[in-house]
C-alpha cells in the first residue's frame, strides 16, 4: 500500500528564462505543447488517490498556464486534499490576475510562494525578471483580498551588484506587506544556467557578510529562522512541504524533472516533456542516513533523535562527527552554526 502523503508537481513552462535558473524549464513552442503536457500530468494525478498533507506546484512558472488550464490542473487535485492540506503554488507576480486568484481560492489553494528575488529593479532586469515592485505589491494585495494570507516570498542574496542597502529595502518591503514567510537563498551559479554560460563567479566573502546582515535584521523585526534559508513570522507559517523533505518523509513527484522519494527509493523524472520516465536511485542505508544528517542539520531545531530512523543515522555517523561544531540537547542533534554546514558534513561524507 502506498502511504505517500506529500505531492510535488512540476510545471516547466516559462515565458522567459531567468539568468540564474537551472531547473527543468522551457519556453513552449505552442499552446498545444502546454495542453498535451497538462493532459499527461492530469492523467497521472487521476491514478493517485491519497489524501495529502501537502501539495506543492512548482516550476518553471505554474501561473504561466491559462486560467482554463490552471483550473483543470487544480480541479484534478481536489480528491487529494482535505481541510488540513497545505496546498501551495509558485507564482510569478507579473502573471497574477483577479481571475487567476479566484481560481486558486475556488480550488482551495491556501499558500502561495511569490518569486520576488530582489526589490532592486535594475538587478531584476539583469536577472531577466519582468516584474516591478508595484506589480508584486498588487499581486500580494489581490491574494489578501481573496483571503489567501499565507504568502511566502523568495529572495536571492549575493546577486551581482546587490548591496546591503538593497537587502534593507527588500526587508522593508517584507515588513510593509506583512509577509508571513520568507526565503533568502544564496546565489548559486549552476551548470545549465545563463550565468554559468557567462562565466560569472560568486564572491564568498560578500555572501557571508550579506547572510549575517539578513540574520540580524530579520531577527530584529520578529522573524524566526527555522532552517538555513527560511524565516517565518509565526510557527504556523512554516513550510510543511519543505519540512517533509528535510525530515525524509515520502513524497510523490509528477512532471518532467521532478524528484521524488518513496519506499526508500529516490527518483527523478527524465526524458521528454510528453514521455518522461522514472529513473530510480535505490539508496542503501548509508545514503538514507547521510540525507537525514544533511537535511536535518539544516533545521534550526536540528535532528530529533527520538525518531528511530534519525537515531540510527546518528549511531551510524557518530564516530565521524566533529562535536565542536554540533550540540546534543534534549535528545536533538543541532548544528552550532547552520551557516557552516559544509564544515560539519565534510568529516562524515
UniProtKB/TrEMBL annotation:
<keyword id="KW-0479">Metal-binding</keyword>
<dbReference type="Pfam" id="PF04055">
    <property type="entry name" value="Radical_SAM"/>
</dbReference>
<dbReference type="InterPro" id="IPR023404">
    <property type="entry name" value="rSAM_horseshoe"/>
</dbReference>
<keyword id="KW-0004">4Fe-4S</keyword>
<dbReference type="GO" id="GO:0051539">
    <property type="term" value="F:4 iron, 4 sulfur cluster binding"/>
</dbReference>
<dbReference type="GO" id="GO:0006779">
    <property type="term" value="P:porphyrin-containing compound biosynthetic process"/>
</dbReference>
<dbReference type="InterPro" id="IPR004559">
    <property type="entry name" value="HemW-like"/>
</dbReference>
<dbReference type="InterPro" id="IPR006638">
    <property type="entry name" value="Elp3/MiaA/NifB-like_rSAM"/>
</dbReference>
<comment type="similarity">
    <text>Belongs to the anaerobic coproporphyrinogen-III oxidase family. HemW subfamily.</text>
</comment>
<dbReference type="InterPro" id="IPR034505">
    <property type="entry name" value="Coproporphyrinogen-III_oxidase"/>
</dbReference>
<feature type="domain" description="Radical SAM core">
    <location>
        <begin position="1"/>
        <end position="224"/>
    </location>
</feature>
<protein>
    <recommendedName>
        <fullName>Heme chaperone HemW</fullName>
    </recommendedName>
</protein>
<dbReference type="GO" id="GO:0046872">
    <property type="term" value="F:metal ion binding"/>
</dbReference>
<comment type="function">
    <text>Probably acts as a heme chaperone, transferring heme to an unknown acceptor. Binds one molecule of heme per monomer, possibly covalently. Binds 1 [4Fe-4S] cluster. The cluster is coordinated with 3 cysteines and an exchangeable S-adenosyl-L-methionine.</text>
</comment>
<keyword id="KW-0408">Iron</keyword>
<keyword id="KW-0349">Heme</keyword>
<dbReference type="GO" id="GO:0004109">
    <property type="term" value="F:coproporphyrinogen oxidase activity"/>
</dbReference>
<keyword id="KW-0963">Cytoplasm</keyword>
<dbReference type="InterPro" id="IPR007197">
    <property type="entry name" value="rSAM"/>
</dbReference>
<keyword id="KW-0949">S-adenosyl-L-methionine</keyword>
<keyword id="KW-0411">Iron-sulfur</keyword>
<dbReference type="GO" id="GO:0005737">
    <property type="term" value="C:cytoplasm"/>
</dbReference>
<dbReference type="InterPro" id="IPR058240">
    <property type="entry name" value="rSAM_sf"/>
</dbReference>
<keyword id="KW-0143">Chaperone</keyword>
